[in-house]
Structure formats: C-alpha cells, structure tokens
Amino acid sequence: MPKAPRPSSDAAGHLAIFHPVCDAFALLLQPHAEVVLHDLATETVAYIANNFSRRALGEPSLLQEIDFRPEDRMIGPYEKVNWDGRRIKSISAVLRSPEGRPVGVLCINMDVSHIHAAIEMLSTFSGVATDQGKPTALFKDDWHERINEYVSGWTRRHGVAIADMTRMQKQQLVRELAQDGAFSGKHAAAYISRVLQMGRATVYNYLRDSGN
C-alpha cells in the first residue's frame, strides 16, 4: 500500500511514531478502512493511510464534529457519510504524551456500505411480499407446514428447544397438537415423532394417555 506523504511541519513531528500504527490498521482492513491522524497542537490533519475521504494533510481537523473533549480516551463508534454517499462507521482514540497530555486523535473510518448492500440483498432474497402470502393451492393440505409452525410457536412461547424438552413437555405438546387436529393427516404421527425426536410408539402412548 502506498503511504501518504508525511507532513513537513515540526508540530506534527512528534506524532510520527504513530504513522506505522495507522499504516497497520489500514493494511489489515484494506480496502475498507481509512486511518486519519489529527495533530491537536495545530488541530490539523497530520497523516492519512488509505485515503478515501479525499481529505488533505494540513487541513482543519474539525474535531468538534465528533464532540472531542481532551479528557476523552475513546470516541465512538459513530456514523458518518463519505463524500460519495458511502456510509462510514468510525471510532477515534485520543493519543497522549508520556505525561498524559492529549497530543493527537487517531480516527479509523470503516466503509460499511458494502455490508449494508449485502444485508439489503439478502433481505430481498429471503423475504416474501406480504400481500402474496402462501400459495393456497400449495399449502391448503400441507399439514407438514402447519405442524412445523405449531411446534415452532409452542417452543418459542415456552422458551425451550425441542432437544431440551422434558417428557412432560412433550406429552403436553402432543396433547395440544391432537386437540388442534394435527394427527388427521396421513402419517402425521410418524412425522410428529421425527420432529419431536422420539419414537412413534411413544407418540401413540402419549395420545392414549391423553384420551385421544
């Protein structure tokens, strides 16, 4: 990665020890991260690694935009918008001298626009328009689907996973499934036994005990 030109001012010289840190972060996260080093003595940009914000060395830092206070150690994470509209997630660390005096601010700007684009794409692929619903002809007699939804809702309401259900909980669920007509489908008992991870004979025993 080509390095940004180093500032020539003496005021920024004391921050030169942080340049490799800036380069390391930018190299590790390339091409998605920019690292900007601000000199608090002059309140200007002192160093930039992987510059995609089009900022220039020596321009005003404008640290008031991130609500900088000298007593801070860390600022953020916070969001910004790049010049080209990309969404940026940033965090800033206040750099101090051995005496504890704040001398600089190191800002890591992460381009997260590609992540948001991927989320939107996955959401589009996985979603179904609410006005479409399920095709009636396909799901009208799909008792598998109805059983799946029933069991999923039951376990969610009771806060338990199928693998962790007790014998009494399985008995209760089988009884409620029977009361709602889940066993009317052909081979429904076999399917429910597989869903609840138990033998078919056990399901029939639970049904008999419940009086169904």
List the helices and strands and how they pair.
Elements: H1 19-28, E1 33-39, E2 44-49, E3 74-81, E4 87-96, E5 102-111, H2 113-126, H3 136-139, H4 143-158, H5 167-179, H6 188-195, H7 200-210
Antiparallel strand pairs: 1-2, 1-5, 3-4, 4-5
Helix pairs in contact: 4-6, 5-7, 6-7
InterPro entries: DauR-like, DauR-like_HTH, YheO
Pfam families: HTH_22 (PF13309), PAS_6 (PF08348)
Protein name: Putative transcriptional regulator YheO
Structure description:
Residues 147-208 form the Transcriptional regulator DauR-like HTH domain. InterPro entries: DauR-like, DauR-like_HTH, YheO. This is Putative transcriptional regulator YheO. Pfam families: HTH_22 (PF13309), PAS_6 (PF08348). Residues 16-118 form the YheO-like domain. This protein starts with 18 loop residues before the first helix and ends with a helix. It has a five-stranded antiparallel sheet with strand order 2-1-5-4-3. By secondary structure, it is α+β, with helices and mostly antiparallel strands. The chain is elongated, with a radius of gyration of 30 Å. Helix content is 36%, strand content 19%. The chain has helices at 19-28, 113-126, 136-139, 143-158, 167-179, 188-195, 200-210, and strands at 33-39, 44-49, 74-81, 87-96, 102-111. It has two domains: 10-117, Beta-Lactamase, CATH 3.30.450.20; 132-210, no CATH class. Mean pLDDT is 82; it is low at 1-11 and 134-140. The chain contains seven helices and five strands, in the order αβββββαααααα.
